[in-house]
Automatic annotation (TrEMBL):
Gene3D superfamilies: lambda repressor-like DNA-binding domains (1.10.260.40). This is Helix-turn-helix domain-containing protein. SMART domains: HTH_XRE (SM00530). Transmembrane segments: none annotated. InterPro entries: Cro/C1-type_HTH, Lambda_DNA-bd_dom_sf. It comes from the Bacteria. It comes from Aquimarina rubra. Residues 13-62 form the HTH cro/C1-type domain.
C-alpha cells in the first residue's frame, strides 16, 4: 500500500509509549498496533484528530504517500 504510517516515529519524537497514547485517545493498544504497523485498512477522522491533538502534530506528520 502506498500510504506509509509514521506513528512510531512521532511517538519516539514525543517520547511517548504506545500504551500511553492508546489510553489518551481512547482506543485499544491492539488497534493502535494495527495502525502503527500499516495493516489498518482505514482510520476514522476522529481517531486521527485525537492522535494529532495528543502528539501535537499534523496528519502529514503521521501519514505519508509514496507511489
Amino acid at each position: 500500500m502506498p500510504i506509509i504510517v509514521n506513528l512510531d516515529v512521532m511517538l519516539a519524537k514525543r517520547k511517548m509509549k504506545s500504551k500511553d497514547l492508546a489510553e489518551k485517545i481512547g482506543i485499544t493498544t491492539a488497534n493502535l498496533s494495527i495502525l502503527k504497523s500499516g495493516k489498518a485498512k482505514a482510520i476514522r477522522f476522529s481517531t486521527l484528530d485525537a492522535i494529532c491533538v495528543a502528539l501535537e502534530c499534523q496528519p502529514s506528520d503521521i501519514l505519508e504517500y509514496q507511489p
